[in-house]
Design brief:
There is one protein chain. By secondary structure, the protein is of the alpha/beta class. The chain folds into two domains: about 270 residues, Rossmann fold, CATH 3.40.50.12780; about 90 residues, GMP Synthetase, Chain A, domain 3, CATH 3.30.300. The protein is built from 15 helices and 25 strands. Helix 2 packs across helix 3 and helix 10 packs across helix 11. The longest helix is centred in the N-terminal third of the chain and has 16 residues. Bound molecules: methylmalonyl-coenzyme A and adenosine monophosphate. The site of adenosine monophosphate has 19 residues, from strand 13, strand 19 and strand 20.
């Protein structure tokens, strides 16, 4: 029989032959590899019975649980397209995704069932299910009576597996379309590159609605047949309790900052660890160095995007080179990375330019946005990341990439992306506001913190607390400014463009 390009079929090739072993350990319960097959099989049977057209979207906004992972795997097995949503998104944010993606199914937490049902009716989403943090809800109830024996759907490499929304500078979110090939090729490369093996134990504390936790971390362990310690979120007490029995951990820089802030985090706690990986946002030199001093471990920093999954990584094997703090390492095998000028011409080593990428991991385009897709690819097929970087530089080998900034106006706070334009539009719509500029300023915990600089209407005064309360109605909490500054006017250049760099300097 010809191989099946379905991502689940690829991952399952790595499951251990003894399916009774523990695959997922939570503080409450253990799940075996058999359980993964059976539970994801039940979800797939349930979805299959809906007789949805191929490529139908399953939108999911639920708390992290083993069953939530089964929902993901079951969706993939059924040949449907998984569309994860940050649990922090409010109704008005979710409405956009439902309108744009037109999913056939939405699965939500039962506490949100009221407004999600209203939205589903409004947007024509036919099927609504619930799934709560404890694994209960209408989805689990229906899955319980569906068959656990499900023959994973035969997929083609270019079939769509997932859509990940990532905002644009215009404030309108774009759905990055990822295929089975994109996801499985990246998982296979990372398995080799980071030396995954079946004896590994992954401490999984990341959310599973983004690339980092859902794909990079989960796929790594699944494909290696390695156990995951599955925690609902970052909790330092729990992290300290489980680190001694773990070998691999992944986190955004805030995870490492918070571990280091706790004096109980010692070399002894990390005694069985072989690899700490950081990504999604720049890791500060001081965190990298302090971590090495405290634990003896050198954090491996890597770089990626929702549109591309993982692109570059510092070396894992000692003989492959040094892990250099501040750099994101070399292009992964099969991935091409170039640094170019404004005319898409390559620049010399040591020169800063725009980072462009190519490879089997790079997405095919944005959902129903052919023009935007065309704009973001060069004529010869390179994807414009919007990141600025350089190869080499002082004391850095010529094939190591360093990310120095972004040409896109984006704030990364605790690993979550915030698009200033989206926040500015909401602030500008508040009564008494003339205009606003939203910027990121350095923050010891989140890396960057969102700050708003607001010009009140002439003669008026504004109340920052009232504004924040109003913003929280429509905006996920992590996007809500941590501070608002009032100014009589915004600094502009001769072209009339707001000088965000000057504002960042002033308010840092
Ligand atoms: C929570 N809050 C935040 C953030 N998270 N504010 C700004 N930035 C954040 N990231 C808000 C909360 O809503 C709360 O607000 C207040 O801050 C304090 O919350 P706290 O209890 O400290 O938050 P937490 O629950 O501990 O969460 C912080 C966190 C979490 C653990 C750092 O944000 C997190 O897990 N981040 C990981 C994100 C991630 O996985 N990114 C990968 C993207 P209030 O008091 O008002 O309610 S994938 C990606 O980027 C690419 C592809 C890649 O390369 O990986
Ligand atoms: P997302 O839209 O969530 O996929 O975020 C992708 C963006 O995160 C990239 O375009 C980079 O700007 C940033 N990013 C990811 N990893 C790193 C890293 N190690 N260092 C600096 N920036 C990073």
């Amino acid at each position: 029989m010809e191989g099946n390009a379905n991502l689940y079929a690829v991952l399952a090739e790595g499951f251990p032959s003894d399916r009774h072993q523990v695959a997922i350990q939570t503080p409450e319960q253990a799940y075996s590899w058999n359980d993964i097959e059976a539970m994801s099989g039940r979800v797939a049977s349930l979805l299959h019975a809906l007789q949805l057209p191929a490529g139908s979207r399953v939108a999911v906004q639920v708390e992290k649980s083993p069953m939530a992972l089964m929902l993901y795997l079951g969706t993939i097995r059924a040949g449907l397209v998984y569309l994860p949503l940050n649990t922090a998104y409010k109704a008005s944010e979710v409405e956009y995704f439902l309108t744009d993606a037109e999913p056939a199914v939405i699965v939500c937490d039962s506490k949100n069932l009221g407004w999600v049902t209203d939205l589903a009716q409004k947007t024509g989403t036919p099927h609504v299910h619930t799934l709560d943090a404890d694994g209960s809800g209408s989805l689990a109830a229906a899955a319980a009576s569906a068959s656990e024996n499900f023959q994973t759907v035969q997929s083609q490499p270019d079939d769509l597996a997932a859509i990940l929304y990532t905002s644009g500078t215009t404030g309108r979110s774009k759905g990055a379309m990822l295929s089975h090939r994109n996801l499985s090729s990246n998982a296979q490369v990372l398995k080799e590159y980071w030396g995954w093996h079946s004896d590994d134990v992954l401490l999984h504390m990341l959310p599973i609605f983004h690339v980092h936790g859902l794909f990079v971390a989960s796929h790594g362990a699944l494909l290696a047949g390695a156990k995951m310690i599955w925690l609902p979120k970052l909790d330092i007490d729990q992290a300290l309790a489980y680190l001694p029995e773990s070998t691999v951990m992944m986190g955004v820089p805030t995870y490492y900052v918070r571990l280091l802030a706790d004096p109980r985090f010692t070399r002894e706690v990390c005694r069985n660890m072989r690899l700490f990986i950081s990504g999604s946002a720049p890791l500060l030199h001081e965190t990298f160095n302090e971590f090495k001093d405290r634990t003896g471990h050198t954090i491996l920093e890597r770089y990626g995007m929702s549109e591309t999954i993982m692109l570059t990584s510092n070396p894992y094997e000692a003989d492959a080179g040094e892990r250099l703090g501040g750099t994101v390492g070399r292009p992964l095998p099969g991935v091409s990375v170039r640094v170019v000028d404004e005319n898409d011409e390559g620049v010399a080593v040591g020169t800063i330019g725009n980072v462009q990428v190519k490879g089997p991991n790079v997405f095919s385009g944005y959902w129903r946005m052919p023009e935007k897709t065309r704009e973001e690819f060069t004529a010869d097929g390179w994807f414009r990341t919007g990141d600025m970087g350089l190869f080499g530089g002082e004391g850095v080998p010529d094939d190591y990439l360093t990310i120095v900034g972004r040409s896109k106006d984006l704030i990364i706070s605790g690993g979550y992306n915030v698009y200033p334009k989206e926040v500015e539009l909401l602030i500008d719509a508040l009564p008494g506001v003339n205009e606003s500029a939203v910027i990121g300023v350095p923050d010891p915990d989140f890396g960057e913190a969102v700050v708003a600089v607001v010009v009140p209407k002439e003669g008026g005064t504004l109340d920052a607390d009232a504004m924040l309360t109003a913003l929280k109605q429509d905006l996920a909490n992590f996007k809500v400014p941590k501070r608002i500054h009032f100014v009589p006017e915004l600094v502009r250049n001769t072209m009339g463009k707001v000088q965000k760099n000057a504002l960042r300097d002033q308010y840092k």
